[in-house]
């Protein structure tokens, strides 16, 4: 195929066929095929341009050459060849191309500048003259407008693209000067003097338009259109480096152009002014086009000018207002352009657009332009004078009476103003979306009533009213209703219920595009009324709250008290066997007063027991270490850093009584408890072991030999307990509390609950058990 194309391009007879095939092959061929044949194709195409050929062949050759140049940028070898040989050979041919193929030639030049800006630099001056020549001839060619915007990118950019930045600023300054000169010639004698001060009119080197020229106004309007198109491409074209856009100067030019309208021109009509009034809509549309591109480029940087921009746009709507008679409006195209700029402004600046400054004016014109056209019938009656006799009857034929009656025949254009209404509905949609929650309630209520009334009219009519026979108008109306649902105002009730019914009816629309949009809108409304799923963290939080609330009295409080019960500095040792652990758990489950026990009281009793033990240890010959443990579901309090205690270990284990105590809950679990105490004492020569049982506050000790101790020790233990409880005054409690805090700071408080079975409630012992335990701790091995 490649060889066949090459043979066709070399033959003048088959050249057209070869160009058509090459245009398709360039887009569809693989990388290898393109890389192997691109250089050959470029040479054959340049030879075609150098020869004499028809305009159609010349245009097709430029088009295919443009495609090849765009694809060749990805290949280094091919790019090097195009840079060194192709560009210097191609550009002189394109610059001297015939006038009838200017657009194709300039399109190929644009491809060269865009993809190879460096090699085009030496031809910049020639390209500038070539483009100005085409601009001066008022050639309405978009490729020429774009080429002027790309001239600043010709040649190397320098450090950080500074040369491109300076070239762009120079091109923009020249263009601004020519635009101001054109406006001054168009509005000669109409502008006040202060608007012309400080404006530089030095611009492009274009031929002047004389005052005696017959079509002077037309020529000026064409030049204005050409220059504004160039400005639009300069603002819209992607820039290779950072440039400084003269936003203030461009806005000044726009405001100057929009300051004169047809109403002002017709106040003192002349032949030239009447002719200019006919071109005013086109002049304003071109100015609004510049504003549109400026908004897209600068966006929120135009916030300081928002008041002026919104005021000028609303002023355009005011002076172009006309009635709705079912036909195309007089200034419909201009109003459509205003609404398009409004939509772009709202999209770019969102809530900071300042559109609420002209809320009343804008809403009024929007509703007027969106209103459907309906025929109105007005009946009038003529009053006769008094004394007139009866009128003479005239003989009328049947068809004459009908012809003089009401006629329903009229010219109808079903799509009249459809583009205008579509643009107005789009502006209304973005107005509500961006600023609907901040609008006044009265204006928003007017919009809601208008939209609902119009939709009912469209849905209930057999033939949709003008211009809502257009699918874009109906879809735009439904989109406005959706915006009213999604952006409600706190001062106006949401129309979500009415919207659901209207969207449901809209499913029957004969146009699939409109009905499918109604399906989407219904899903949005349903999600607002009925949430599909709860919030992400909702079920987890609720589940935890319910679980905590249900088990708080039995489980959570026990865990809380168990966590706060501390073990102070010492070596923790697990004592007891599995049987004793089961007894402890059974007894603790039957304690009714568990919730009234506090951690502070437990620590206080433990400290008191330690003090009593210190007093008893003075009568003992050798030092001993006391370790007091209060076992509440395997939670113990250990004292290990008292000054009078050595490294020996003393263990006290509290064990439940028989299973008979589990059934008696009214006795506070105190009278039936059995206490066993085991003391181990290491001495130099031997060991002493003792055990004791207490029942009904009686203490019985037996030595290692089994002999019982006398009853005097019982009275001693009871007296010490009574004295300790009697002398526990308020001041002593405060003092002991401070001592407890200091000891807590010295020791490490730990919570040993690793041996507690999972799922078992942790409970604290009863106060009576603690009192009994303290008494036994105070009793030494010498007592009964």
Cross-sheet strand order for the largest sheet: 4-5-6
Count of separate DSSP helical elements: 29
Largest sheet properties: 3 strands, antiparallel
**In one word, what is the shape?**
extended
Question: Structural class of the helices, strands and pairings?
Answer: mainly alpha
Distance between the termini: 122 Å
As a whole number of angstroms, the C-alpha radius of gyration is: 50 Å
Q: How many beta-strand elements? A: 7
Q: Helical percent range?
A: 55-70%
Low-pLDDT regions:
393-406, 538-599, 621-714, 744-763
The fraction of residues assigned to DSSP E strands is under 5%
Average predicted local confidence, pLDDT = 74
Protein traits:
mainly alpha, two-stranded antiparallel sheet, 4% strand
Structure report:
This protein is mainly α and 784 residues long. It contains 29 helices and seven strands. It has helices spanning 2-10, 15-28, 31-50, 55-71, 76-95, 102-115, 117-120, 124-136, 142-150, 162-186, 216-236, 247-258, 262-265, 271-298, 306-319, 332-349, 359-370, 398-403, 418-435, 441-460, 471-486, 496-506, 512-529, 538-564, 578-589, 599-616, 712-726, 730-746, 767-778; strands spanning 567-568, 652-654, 675-677, 679-682, 687-695, 698-702, 749-750.
């Amino acid at each position: 195929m490649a060889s066949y194309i090459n043979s066709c391009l070399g033959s003048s007879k088959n050249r057209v066929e070869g160009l058509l095939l090459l245009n398709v092959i360039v887009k569809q061929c693989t990388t290898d095929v393109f890389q192997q044949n691109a250089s050959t194709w470029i040479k054959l195409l340049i030879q075609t341009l150098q020869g004499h050929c028809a305009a159609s062949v010349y245009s097709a050759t430029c088009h295919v050459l443009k495609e090849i140049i765009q694809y060749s940028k990805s290949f280094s070898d091919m790019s090097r060849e195009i840079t060194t040989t192709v560009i210097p050979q191609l550009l002189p041919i394109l610059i001297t191309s015939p006038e009838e193929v200017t657009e194709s030639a300039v399109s190929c030049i644009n491809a060269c500048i865009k993809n190879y800006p460096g090699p085009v630099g030496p031809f910049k001056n020639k390209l500038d003259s070539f483009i100005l020549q085409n601009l001066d001839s008022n050639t309405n060619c978009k490729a020429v407008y774009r080429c002027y915007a790309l001239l600043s990118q010709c040649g190397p950019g320098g450090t950080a693209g500074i040369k491109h930045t300076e070239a762009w600023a120079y091109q923009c300054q020249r263009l601004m000067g020519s635009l101001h000169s054109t406006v001054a010639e168009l509005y000669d004698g109409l502008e006040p003097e202060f608007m012309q001060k400080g404006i530089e009119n030095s611009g492009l080197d274009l031929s002047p338009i004389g005052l005696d020229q017959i079509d002077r106004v037309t020529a000026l309007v064409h030049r204005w259109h050409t220059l504004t198109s160039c400005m639009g491409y300069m603002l819209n074209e992607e820039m290779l480096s950072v440039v400084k856009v003269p936003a203030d100067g461009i806005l000044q030019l726009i405001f100057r152009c929009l300051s004169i309208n047809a109403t002002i021109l017709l106040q003192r009509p002349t032949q030239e002014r009447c002719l200019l009034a006919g071109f005013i809509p086109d002049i304003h549309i071109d100015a609004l086009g510049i504003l549109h591109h400026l908004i897209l480029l600068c966006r929120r940087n135009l916030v300081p000018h928002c008041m002026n921009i919104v005021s000028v746009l609303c002023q355009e709507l005011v002076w172009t207002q006309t009635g709705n008679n079912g036909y195309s409006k007089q200034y419909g195209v201009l109003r459509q352009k205003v609404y398009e700029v409004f939509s772009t402004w709202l999209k770019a600046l969102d809530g900071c657009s300042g559109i609420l400054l002209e809320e009343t004016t804008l809403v009024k014109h929007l509703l007027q332009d969106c209103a459907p056209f309906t025929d109105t019938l007005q009946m009038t009656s003529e009053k006769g004078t008094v004394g007139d006799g009866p009128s003479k009857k005239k003989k009328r034929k049947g068809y004459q009476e009908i012809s003089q009656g009401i006629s329903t025949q009229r010219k109808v254009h079903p799509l009249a103003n459809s583009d205008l209404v579509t643009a107005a509905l789009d502006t209304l949609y973005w107005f509500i979306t961006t600023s609907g929650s901040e609008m006044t309630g009265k204006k928003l209520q007017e919009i809601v009533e208008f939209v609902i009334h119009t939709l009912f009219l469209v849905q209930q009519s057999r033939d949709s009213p003008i211009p809502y026979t257009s699918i874009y108008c109906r879809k735009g109306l439904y989109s406005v209703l959706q915006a009213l649902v999604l952006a409600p105002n706190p001062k106006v009730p949401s129309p979500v219920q009415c919207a659901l019914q209207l969207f449901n009816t809209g499913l029957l629309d004969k146009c699939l595009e409109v009905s499918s949009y109604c399906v989407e809108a219904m899903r949005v409304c349903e999600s607002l009324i009925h949430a599909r799923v709860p919030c992400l963290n909702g079920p987890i939080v609720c589940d935890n709250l319910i679980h905590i609330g249900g088990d708080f009295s039995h489980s959570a409080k026990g865990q809380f008290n168990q966590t706060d019960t501390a073990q102070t500095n010492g070596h923790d040792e697990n004592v007891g066997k599995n049987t004793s652990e089961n007894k402890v758990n059974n007894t603790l489950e039957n304690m009714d007063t568990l919730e009234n026990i506090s951690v502070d009281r437990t620590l206080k009793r433990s400290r008191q027991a330690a003090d009593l033990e210190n007093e008893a240890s003075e009568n003992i010959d050798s030092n001993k270490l006391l370790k007091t443990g209060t076992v509440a579901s395997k939670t113990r309090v250990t004292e290990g850093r008292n000054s009078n205690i050595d490294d020996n270990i003393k263990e006290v284990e509290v064990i439940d009584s028989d299973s008979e105590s589990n059934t008696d809950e009214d006795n506070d679990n105190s009278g039936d408890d059995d206490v066993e105490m085991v003391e181990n004492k290491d001495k130099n020569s031997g060991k002493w072991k003792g055990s004791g049982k207490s029942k009904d506050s009686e203490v019985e000790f037996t030595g290692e030999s089994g002999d019982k101790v006398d009853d005097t020790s019982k009275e001693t233990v009871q007296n010490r307990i009574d004295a300790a409880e009697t002398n526990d005054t308020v001041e002593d409690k405060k003092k002991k509390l401070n001592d407890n805090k200091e000891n807590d700071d010295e020791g490490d408080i730990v919570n040993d609950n690793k041996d507690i079975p999972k799922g078992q409630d942790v409970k604290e012992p009863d106060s009576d058990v603690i009192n009994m335990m303290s008494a036994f701790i105070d009793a030494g091995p010498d007592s009964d």
